Amino acid sequence: MADLEYLFHPRSVAIVGASRDPHHLTNRLFTEALLNFGFKGKIYLVNPKTSEILGLKTYANLQEIAEPVDCVLCSIPAPLTPQLIKECVTKGVKVVNIFTAGFSETGTEEGKRLEREIVEIARRGGMRLIGPNCMGIYSPSTNLTYDIDLSPKSGSVGVLCQSGGHSYEIIIRGNARGIYFSKAISYGNAADLNETDFLEYFTQDEETKIIAAYIEGVRGKRFAKVLAEAARTKPVIIFKGGRTEAGTKAVASHTGSIAGSELIWNSVCRQLGVIQVYSIDEMLDLLVAFTQMRIPKGRRVGILGVGGGASVQATDECESHGLIVPRFPMELRDKLTKSTPQVGTSLSNPVDTSIGTFWNTEALFESIKTISYSNEVDLLLIYLNVVYAGFRLYKETNQSTLEVIVKANQSLDFPMALALLPTEKIVGNELRVEEIEAGLPIYYSLSSAAQAISKFIKLINSAREE
Amino acid sequence: MADLEYLFHPRSVAIVGASRDPHHLTNRLFTEALLNFGFKGKIYLVNPKTSEILGLKTYANLQEIAEPVDCVLCSIPAPLTPQLIKECVTKGVKVVNIFTAGFSETGTEEGKRLEREIVEIARRGGMRLIGPNCMGIYSPSTNLTYDIDLSPKSGSVGVLCQSGGHSYEIIIRGNARGIYFSKAISYGNAADLNETDFLEYFTQDEETKIIAAYIEGVRGKRFAKVLAEAARTKPVIIFKGGRTEAGTKAVASHTGSIAGSELIWNSVCRQLGVIQVYSIDEMLDLLVAFTQMRIPKGRRVGILGVGGGASVQATDECESHGLIVPRFPMELRDKLTKSTPQVGTSLSNPVDTSIGTFWNTEALFESIKTISYSNEVDLLLIYLNVVYAGFRLYKETNQSTLEVIVKANQSLDFPMALALLPTEKIVGNELRVEEIEAGLPIYYSLSSAAQAISKFIKLINSAREE
């Protein structure tokens, strides 16, 4: 097992192929982003055709840099990379992140040959490669990034991601939902360091409490063993690309990977207790549960909201995803009448309460508390559909309704989540969902809430039984 | 069969239970909304405790109104309704929309008795009831509405909806996605007029080209026959509430309905060619296809976008939902190289093109045209993920990219759709999606696009085979 900790602590980074155009994507993604992110080490720009970029002196080549270079970001055309990799070995570089594409994923003999060549040079020289055809490393605790919009705030989720685009989507949309990351690695074609190495790293990384991965293909037999150890140690969530026949071909064109059999993949994940997801939305839904939700003791869910149709749908979604929506006994229903009128409502669970209850902050808090303390359920799913007439026509009340729910989540020691509907920007849906910073798990549909919470409970319970 | 056309053409509406408080929900939903919506008939407000509301004279009771009243909106407490229904009969009212709740859905003997009583009075008097526990009728072509935010623009979709909240969500979120409605009926407990009556009406209504329904329970054996006729005549999309055991109980509490067996329901829908959906999102996704997409001749889909992970996902989603993603022959790939560089891209379908192609309006148009005219596919799915670095960091280009796609959709006679990702309001996602008014079908996830388009093609094809 390689100790990869040094990948996240380079004392210096050289960007080879930094563009003379300050607005060029390479500069914005790497140079500008690293500067803004407060990277503590040295940043060297290599470009033989100019003397300065973004106020930084440039170097004609690596050898011109007097000080040691730990990490190189490579953004030059593929045919030029073997020469650069040689120079990196000579310079004593520890790792090269190869942003450059045009290797095995092209499907051409030349591309495959080039990829083999750079790996051979690196291995002979005792140097590691990330990529090619990737974004590299995001590590907020050590001020490394590959984009200016990724949060500087650290969190508990470690991401290994074979697609650069998906890694952006996971981090940026994750940040918007209150999910923060220990490290993320976009590793592209995985010619040298690969999914097994990164998974092994995250398994022992103390900063990482949950592992999320997007994987297109797996190299070598060690993976299953490492995945088993990872899943024994932490929750592991995997989104696998290339499930279908045409998807398998798309995977080959994207990262030159061999997707493998879906059946085998599914059975391995099931056996090892790995959570499979089928989209980034679903991955984020699960990460919201794992990072923000209190752990329910069981699968019994209380449902509270306004709107009969939605109460029926919430019930159907919860039950069809394996949660239980128990009918409330008369005693509990009687208690709920103290904060809810009986006409136009239903108190038997789902609790389809009145809009007046949601407008009245005390009544809403009381209803939440009554259900939470009842011992009839293990968690509470609240839904708030701001498209409904009351929430839309009197929208000034929505923010205080949201605040009561946040407050209840903070002060009552009970697992709860909010389905905030719908997601489109429509009349009245101008709530400040920075409230998610307050630790309230928020979902954007009833089905995604039910599905994520059910998978969350299932994994937690199976871990508890072991 | 009752001819229900008159329901949508009342010469006058009386709102019984109009509140003295001008900001009260009843006034905002009915009085204010009808005034704003340009209702051409007379509006009478009935409230014995005041003389004027929102500038309109009020009446102590119906008999005080000298002119005929065609429609009554009832918003008084349930125990008072039998007396009102009698007065309506005396007055010669044709239909009463009963907004009031507190009937059979309460589960109490008194609630059930009250509901039976008002139905008996109405039937004896030859008058029809909608509801109780419902919103009533939205009919933009005759300026009827039950909310101030529903679009005055008419369209081709007829909606019958057993939940008032769901009906708001369908109309308002539908409007935001370029879907417009012929009529929508929120019919609650369906004590008198019910799903069968409304489905029969929409089957013969010329303004309605597609029928969408949310149904919790079905009354009487005539329904299956009417549904068969409806599905033979027009596309019918149904979202059924109460699929699970607890959902069945929730349905009883919501509208007093009997949900029935899910197995029987599924088999009836399958036999009759009715499209089943499981959420309003999915219903809207399908309506986007039916109202905005050209009809594909087959199931072969071309995929075009930027981002390898997304291209793999789009392929997996399309294939797993029953579409076919054929590999492009070398000849077509060669043509595509004219508008796409070959490094960091894949041209074999999915076409994972360069960000430069999406920034270059001519190259993008050319790529779309080349695929559309190739005879290799029957439709084109384009994806644009504005969270990706290029689209996010150079966001001024996104609007022109979107405009090219709109233009291509308008000028090339070829079925296409756009997956615009992601939905959350994040950096860079500030596109003016009013472009949907231009008839471009837009989806907010790859899976929803693939699922809706596949179901759309399946129904169209089966209709074609008959």
Secondary-structure map:
The structure is a homodimer of 466-residue chains.
Chain A lengths: L11 E5 L8 H12 L5 E5 L5 E2 L2 E4 L11 E4 L6 H11 L3 E4 L10 H16 L3 E3 L5 E3 L15 E8 L2 H13 L4 E6 L8 H10 L5 E6 L6 H12 L2 E5 L4 H11 L6 H11 L2 E3 L2 H13 L8 E5 L2 H13 L9 H7 L14 E2 L2 H5 L1 H12 L6 E7 L3 H5 L2 H16 L4 E6 L20 E2 L2 H20 L1
Helix pairs in contact in A: 2-3, 4-9, 5-6, 9-16, 10-16, 13-15
The overall pLDDT average of chain A reads 92
Largest interface: A-B, 87 and 87 residues
Main beta-sheet strand count, sense and barrel state of chain A: 7 strands, mixed
| End-to-end distance of chain A | 27 Å
Oligomer: homodimer
For the biggest β-sheet of chain A, the strand order reads 3-4-2-1-5-6-7
Strand segment count of chain A: 18
Question: Structural class, from secondary structure content of chain A?
Answer: alpha/beta
Rounded to the nearest angstrom, the radius of gyration of chain A is: 25 Å
Shape label of chain A: elongated
Q: Give the strand content of chain A.
A: 15-25%
Which ranges of chain A are low-confidence, i.e. pLDDT below 50, for 5 or more consecutive residues? none
Q: How many H/I helices of chain A?
A: 16
Overview features:
alpha/beta; elongated; 40% helix; 466 residues; homodimer
Description:
Two copies of one chain form a homodimer. The first copy, chain A, has 466 residues and is of the alpha/beta class. Helix content of chain A is 40%, strand content 17%. Chain A has 16 helices and 18 strands. Chain A has helices spanning 25-36, 81-91, 109-124, 164-176, 195-204, 222-233, 245-255, 262-272, 280-292, 308-320, 330-336, 355-359, 361-372, 389-393, 396-411, 446-465, and strands at residues 12-16, 42-46, 52-53, 56-59, 71-74, 95-98, 128-130, 136-138, 154-161, 181-186, 210-215, 236-240, 275-277, 301-305, 351-352, 379-385, 416-421, 442-443. Chain A has a seven-stranded mixed sheet with strand order 3-4-2-1-5-6-7, with helices on both faces. In chain A, strand 9 (154-161), helix 4 (164-176) and strand 10 form a beta-alpha-beta unit. The first copy, chain A, is elongated, with a radius of gyration of 25 Å. The first copy, chain A, starts with 11 loop residues before the first strand and ends with a helix. The model of chain A has no long low-confidence stretch (mean pLDDT 92). Chains A and B meet through helix 1, helix 4, helix 7, helix 10 and helix 14 of A and helix 1, helix 4, helix 7, helix 10 and helix 14 of B.
